[in-house]
């Protein structure tokens, strides 16, 4: 990384100067994009990215409880594997199980978080972006080249012995080069109290055990600007050691779990972007190495067998895209090449390799207030075991923008490949059995209407969506040989429809501002897999029929007060929508008060789950009750 930095610096002439204009993003405004800016992020008491994503429409967050619990995102009931997660434009992936744990990503250094339903209008998209059913973009803060340095320190401590520390230090090396280093440390005992119902029917209060977490994240980055070109090289290292408390079994003798997991995630990625008047080019590269150690201990749970498993995953990623635009027509092509390798000491499991090649093309045409877009992605992948996949994914859209209104209609067909776990893993030692699985396929139909307006001190944005989704060849796990040996099959079929509504209003006057975001989602996702089943058409697991999220932020001089509210209706553990499978509706209210002192110190006090509501997002994984956190932030610019 250091040598590459020297090479790029040597390529730059000292007499060059920065262009006063910003580099074009080749992006048309699309109502399919939901963006949460750094201003709103700072008003929400959050430890990680999922705490912010809860305030978007059409999302479900699976949260296994506490700071160290696994957290994944599900967009419009398509499944977490259908959502592509990108940091600074480069995809995060997990070929083993297809799930990205968003809980490991802190929000302290994020400029924005964006959720795209199906497709954005950016021309410079990688083939992986175009292939995803939906995407989440994490954009880290880019240094301000007008400042010689930028240093941020933040520390916080709260309930359940939960502490965190964050550092970001950036220094300008020249008029066109900036070096930045950031890192954070998090710790929690995770021993929060919760209430469960015993077999006798009595409510019992217990305390979560083996839910501790220690994590450390370090990230150096180099930014270079040269006229119409941008370079970025970033390193990343994340280490965590956590307890896995397991589900709470609601009986007289509580289930105790001593399992633990250690993760070491490392990657280095680089990007080059050129943006001219008519031509734009983007090149991305990444190498990642992930290590996971899973320990199943018998000390606290003697009913399980001892396991000490190790997983090693490597991935190489290369992406290139080019876009060209004229007065009304814009088009682009992109290709991604991905090589993945998984090695483990699971009994009977041999090394797994996959090469995935994607080729994509898209075009947009604009005439006055009307724009039409289309894209297509072709994917070919092959595993060393001989399994091959070919998939084709088209997309078409039509947008009409009269005045302050935007009307969008689109259809997108997409897919997701089976993971290594789904193809090669079963409960016992026949781990090299290759299952005949096809990619999951989705069709998304959507109509969106949006309005943006302002008058005097008021400005607002309103958006409403109506959508219908079909997921075919859904991969599910079923007991085939017997109840103890489960296999993955293309068995599932899900039909989903619903509507979203979002209103974002702001009042600004002198040193006062009031902003209010309100989101509502109605979602019906029926399991249509087996017409002979008595549960045919039942709402699929963990998807609420109604959900509401809202944030209110009041700023007055150096004071900030925010209230953040979440409500989800009754959900079910399975498509058997009966009382015994139901998870109760819940509401959660978080409050925060902060004050800025001397222009560079910010003190904040936050209270989460003010009403001390006991609830579960995932069955038998209770969430924390009321908790407090005090933080101090120092900024030097």
Model description:
The chain is mostly beta strands and 637 residues long. It has helices spanning 2-11, 38-41, 49-53, 127-131, 420-424; strands spanning 33-37, 59-63, 71-75, 83-87, 90-92, 110-117, 134-140, 149-158, 162-172, 177-188, 193-197, 203-207, 213-226, 229-244, 259-275, 279-296, 307-325, 329-344, 352-367, 370-383, 388-400, 405-416, 440-455, 458-482, 485-509, 512-527, 546-556, 559-568, 571-572, 582-583, 586-597, 601-608, 616-618, 621-622, 627-636. The chain has one domain (2-8, 24-525, 532-636): TonB-dependent receptor, beta-barrel domain (Maltoporin, Chain A). 5% of the residues lie in helices and 59% in strands. It has a 22-stranded antiparallel beta barrel. It has a 5-stranded mixed β-sheet with strand order 1-6-7-4-5. Mean pLDDT is 87; it is low at 1-28 and 427-432.
Helix content class: under 10%
CATH class: Mainly Beta
The dominant shape is: globular
What is the CATH fold-level name? Maltoporin, Chain A
Radius of gyration: 25 Å
Domains (count): 1
CATH homologous superfamily assignment: TonB-dependent receptor, beta-barrel domain
| Average pLDDT metric | 87
The total strand number stands at 35
In the CATH classification, which architecture applies? Beta Barrel
Helical stretch count? Answer: 5
């Amino acid at each position: 990384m250091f040598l590459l930095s020297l090479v790029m610096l040597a390529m730059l002439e000292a007499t060059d100067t920065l262009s006063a204009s910003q580099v074009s993003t080749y992006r048309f405004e699309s109502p399919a994009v939901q963006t949460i800016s750094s201003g709103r992020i700072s008003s929400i008491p959050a430890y990680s990215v999922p705490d912010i994503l809860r305030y978007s429409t059409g999302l479900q967050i699976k949260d296994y409880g506490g700071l160290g619990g696994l957290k994944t995102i599900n967009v419009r009931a398509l499944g977490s594997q259908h959502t592509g997660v990108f940091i600074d434009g480069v995809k995060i992936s997990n070929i083993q199980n297809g799930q990205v744990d968003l809980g490991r990503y802190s929000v302290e250094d994020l400029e924005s978080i964006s959720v795209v339903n199906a497709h954005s209008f950016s021309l410079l998209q990688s083939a992986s972006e175009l292939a995803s059913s939906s995407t989440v973009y994490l954009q880290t803060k880019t240094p301000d080249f007008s400042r010689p340095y930028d240093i941020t320190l933040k520390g916080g401590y709260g309930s359940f012995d939960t502490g965190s520390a964050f550092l970001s230090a950036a220094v300008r090396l020249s008029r066109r080069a900036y070096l930045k280093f950031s890192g954070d440390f998090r710790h929690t005992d995770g021993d929060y109290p919760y209430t469960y119902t015993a077999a006798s029917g009595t409510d019992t209060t217990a305390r979560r055990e083996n839910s501790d977490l220690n994590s450390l994240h370090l990230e150096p980055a180099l930014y270079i600007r040269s006229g119409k070109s941008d370079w970025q090289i970033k390193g990343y290292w994340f280490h965590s050691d956590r307890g896995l408390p397991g589900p709470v079994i609601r009986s007289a003798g509580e289930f105790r779990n001593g399992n633990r997991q250690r993760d070491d995630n490392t990657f280095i990625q680089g990007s080059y972007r050129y943006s001219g008047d008519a031509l734009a080019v983007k090149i991305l590269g990444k190498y990642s190495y992930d290590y996971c150690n899973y320990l199943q201990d018998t000390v606290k749970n003697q009913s399980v067998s001892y396991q000490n498993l190790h997983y090693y995953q490597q991935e190489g990623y290369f992406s290139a895209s080019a876009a060209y635009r004229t007065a009304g027509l814009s088009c682009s092509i992109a290709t991604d090449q991905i090589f993945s390798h998984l090695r483990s000491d699971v009994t009977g499991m041999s090394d797994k390799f996959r090469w995935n090649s994607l080729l994509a093309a898209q075009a947009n045409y604009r005439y006055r207030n009307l724009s039409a877009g289309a894209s297509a992605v072709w994917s070919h992948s092959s595993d060393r075991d001989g399994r091959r996949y070919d998939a084709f994914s088209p997309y078409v859209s039509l947008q009409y923008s009269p005045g302050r209104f935007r009307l969008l209609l689109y259809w997108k067909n997409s897919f997701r490949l089976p993971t290594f776990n789904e193809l090669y893993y079963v409960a016992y030692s026949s781990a090299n059995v290759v299952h005949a699985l096809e990619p999951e396929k989705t069709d998304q139909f959507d109509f969106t209407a949006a309005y943006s307006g302002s008058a005097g001190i008021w400005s607002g944005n309103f958006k409403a969506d109506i959508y219908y989704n079909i997921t075919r060849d859904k991969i599910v796990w079923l007991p085939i040989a017997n109840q103890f040996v489960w296999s993955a099959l293309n068995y599932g079929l899900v039909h989903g429809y619903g509507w979203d509504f979002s209103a974002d209003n702001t009042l600004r006057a002198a040193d006062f501002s009031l902003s209010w975001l309100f989101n509502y989602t109605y979602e019906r996702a029926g399991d249509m897999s087996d017409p002979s089943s008595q549960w045919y058409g039942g709402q699929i697991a963990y998807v609420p029929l109604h959900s509401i999220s809202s944030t209110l932020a009041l700023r007055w001089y150096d004071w900030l007060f925010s209230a953040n509210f979440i409500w989800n209706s009754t959900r079910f553990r399975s498509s058997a929508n009966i009382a015994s499978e139901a998870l109760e509706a819940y509401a959660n209210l978080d409050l925060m008060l902060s004050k800025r002192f001397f222009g560079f110190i910010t003190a904040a006090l936050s209270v989460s789950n003010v009403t001390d509501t006991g609830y579960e997002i995932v069955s038998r994984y209770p969430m924390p009750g009321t908790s407090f956190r005090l933080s101090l932030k120092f900024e030097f610019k």
